[in-house]
Design goal:
Length: about 150
C-alpha cells in the first residue's frame, strides 16, 4: 500500500528532474552556439541571453518554423497530403537549426515567455498543495513517463 502512495510522487519527481536536466543541457548548448563568433564571449548581436525558461519553452514545442509557399517544398507533406505551413522544433532540432541558421532563432525576452503562463501563483500553489485522495488498497494509478 505504501508503494501505491509513494510511487506516483517518485515518478513525477523523476520526470521533473529529467526535464530540468534536458533544459539545462539545451541552455548550455544554445549559449555556446549563439555566442560563438563573438570574440568577447557574449551573445553576439542578440539582446536577450538564452535562459533556462527559453529551454523549457523549447522543450514544450514553443519554437516553430513558419515558411512561405516558395520554400514549402522542403518540408514533408502531412499524411493526408496537405502541405505543412511550418514545423515545431524539438530541442535537438533547435540545436541543429541554431548551428546553421542562428540568425533566424527569435530573440525573445524572458518576460514575453513568462507572460504566457496561464495560471496565477495562487492557482499553482493550490494545485501543488493538494494531496492524493485516499483510496482502497486496490487503487493503483498508472502513469506514463515520456
Amino acid at each position: 500500500m505504501a508503494e501505491g502512495l509513494t510511487l506516483p510522487t517518485v515518478q513525477v519527481a523523476f520526470a521533473a528532474y529529467r526535464q530540468y536536466k534536458d533544459a539545462s543541457s539545451l541552455r548550455h548548448d544554445m549559449r555556446n552556439i549563439l555566442s560563438s563568433g563573438d570574440p568577447e564571449g557574449g551573445v553576439g548581436t542578440r539582446k536577450h541571453e538564452w535562459s533556462l525558461t527559453h529551454s523549457y519553452f523549447a522543450g514544450m514545442g514553443g519554437f516553430e518554423i513558419v515558411v512561405d509557399n516558395e520554400r514549402n517544398s522542403v518540408f514533408p507533406t502531412r499524411s493526408n497530403g496537405i502541405e505543412r505551413e511550418g514545423l515545431r522544433l524539438t530541442p535537438e532540432g533547435l540545436r541543429m537549426f541554431a548551428q546553421h541558421h542562428a540568425n533566424l532563432i527569435p530573440d525573445i525576452p524572458l518576460q514575453q515567455i513568462q507572460d504566457k503562463s496561464k495560471g496565477s501563483l495562487f492557482a499553482k500553489v493550490l494545485v501543488c498543495s493538494q494531496g492524493e485522495p485516499r483510496k482502497s488498497s486496490s487503487f493503483r494509478p498508472v502513469f506514463t513517463l515520456y
